[in-house]
Design brief:
Layout (H helix, E strand, L loop, with lengths): L12 H4 L29 E11 L9 E14 L5 E13 L3 E9 L2 E7 L5 E13 L6 E8 L11 E11 L2
């Protein structure tokens, strides 16, 4: 698989922090199609398990679309520098979520996970909320897997719970 970041970086720091009082100094977004505007949910975004995900133009934070997840998770893998400081962020909206949403970074040394950073969860029904955190990559990390979605073990096939994700960001924190 090609884990190198591509050219389409549609979500800028300004878009993530629009309307916020304190905008951190951030580098370029390393995620491809982080706002799901380029119909790339099946391109650089991969899925775990039986992910029930669709692009939607009915619910979005900015732009004209977001990804709606009804079960399981999607992810993107990015090359990183070990020991570097990164900022991770995403906007999430939920409806009827009984357990919680997932926003996790898995840091890899080769093919082995060396650390997990759980960056935030939401339950119930909520309007768009920003989940964000600064993290320092493990010294031996060479790539990170950003995972978003819902816990699959609590989602029945007939479940009406859903979460929308938009305007994701992963980049250098300065």
């Amino acid at each position: 698989k090609d884990f190198a970041p591509g050219p389409a970086r549609d979500v800028t720091a300004e878009k993530i922090w629009k309307g916020r009082k304190a905008e951190p100094a951030l580098g370029p977004n390393l995620l491809v199609d982080a706002g799901f505007e380029n119909n790339n949910v099946d391109g650089k975004w991969n899925w775990l398990g039986d992910a029930k995900r669709t692009l939607t133009t009915k619910q979005f934070h900015t732009g004209s679309s977001a990804v709606e997840i009804k079960a399981d998770k999607i992810y993107q893998v990015i090359l990183v520098a070990g020991g570097a400081k990164y900022h991770a962020a995403c906007w999430v909206k939920t409806s009827g979520v009984s357990d919680n949403t997932v926003f996790v970074l898995y840091w890899y040394e080769g093919e082995r996970v060396v650390r997990e950073d759980h960056l935030g969860t939401l339950t119930g029904t909520s309007d768009w909320r920003l989940l964000s955190k600064d993290v320092v990559a493990p010294l031996t990390a060479s790539k990170v897997q950003m995972v978003i979605g819902m816990k699959a073990d609590v989602v029945a096939p007939e479940a009406v719970a859903r979460a929308w994700f938009d305007d994701l960001y992963l980049g250098a924190a300065k």
